[in-house]
Amino acid sequence: MVGTVARRDTPYGERFTLFAEVLWIGLLVAAGSLLLVTWPAAMAAGCAAVRRCVPDGPSPGTARRFAADWRAALPGGSAVGAVGLAVLAFLGADLRLAASAGDLPFFWLLALVIAGAAGAVVVYQVRMASTWSSTGRWARPRRDPLGSAMLAGAVLVSAVCVWQLTILAPLVAGVLALAAVAVDRHFRGAGQCRSAAPPRGANHSATAPASPTGPPTAHTRKRPREGTRHA
Predict the structure, then answer these.
(1) Which pLDDT band holds residue 43 (cuts at 50, 70, 90)?
(2) CA 94 – CA 228 distance, rounded (Å)
(3) Among 42, 75, 168, 207, who pairs with 33 as Cys (CB 3.0-4.6 Å)?
(4) Longest C-alpha distance within the chain, in Å?
(5) Which has the closest alpha carbon to 43: 26, 59, 63, 58?
(6) Contact 23, 174 (CB under 8 A)
(7) What's the gap between Cα 152 and its chain centre?
(8) Helix or strand (DSSP H, E) at 75
(9) Which of 17, 40, 226 is nearest to 133 (CA)?
């Protein structure tokens, strides 16, 4: 028998292809976010593109399908983006007002709180975009503190990368969409595992098949006692 050699996943194989596809999706998300209020719709279309790319590899017509998803997500996404930008502008105005007040005590703590609130707004909107990519409608994401914390870490790393090198901003958007889809799938997989597990303390004998109700056979008929035998 001639043995077959398994195909190795080299950096120039499937992983590199996925990496290139995610970068291309990041450029499309950046192009769809040029109007600022449209960035949730662009992120939703990017998450939908990532969902099509991850299971079976890159699919043809990524830009065309991205544009169709972007147009479909635009009506509700513009409202979400406008609200998010208004909240971020309010937080930025508060920070600037506090900075212009002079030597404000504990200014660093206030700046940290405002930065955390701004990051929470971004994480919430990215999770809404990921929810749209799987349901086709804008709705509040499910409660998942662990997933939101993981996505907050991805947002923080993306912000640091853009702060260090601004040219990475168009590419970071695709990686952020990939992280959002990964967090959403992790949450759904954990929920399926919890629903499939039997409840604690469940009586396993209740699920056992019932014995037949027909007449007793030779194996099930009780033997007569020795004292009741007839001569």
Answers:
(1) very high
(2) 97
(3) 42
(4) 115
(5) 26
(6) yes
(7) 12
(8) helix 62-99
(9) 40
**Mean pLDDT across 21-37:** 92
Burial of 161 (0-12, 13-18, 19+ CB in 10 A): middle
Closest CA to 73 of 36, 35, 32: 32
Q: Are 29 and 45 in contact (CB under 8 A)?
A: yes
What is the tens place of the pLDDT at every residue in 183-209? Answer: 988 777 655 545 444 444 444 444 444
Q: Scanning the structure block, which residue is given the tokens 């749209």?
A: 132
- Taking only the tens place, the pLDDT of each residue in 52-99 is 875 545 556 788 999 999 999 999 999 999 999 999 999 999 889 888
Tokens of 168: 């990475």
DSSP state of 192: H
Spatial distance between the Cα atoms of 111 and 99, rounded to a whole number of angstroms? 9
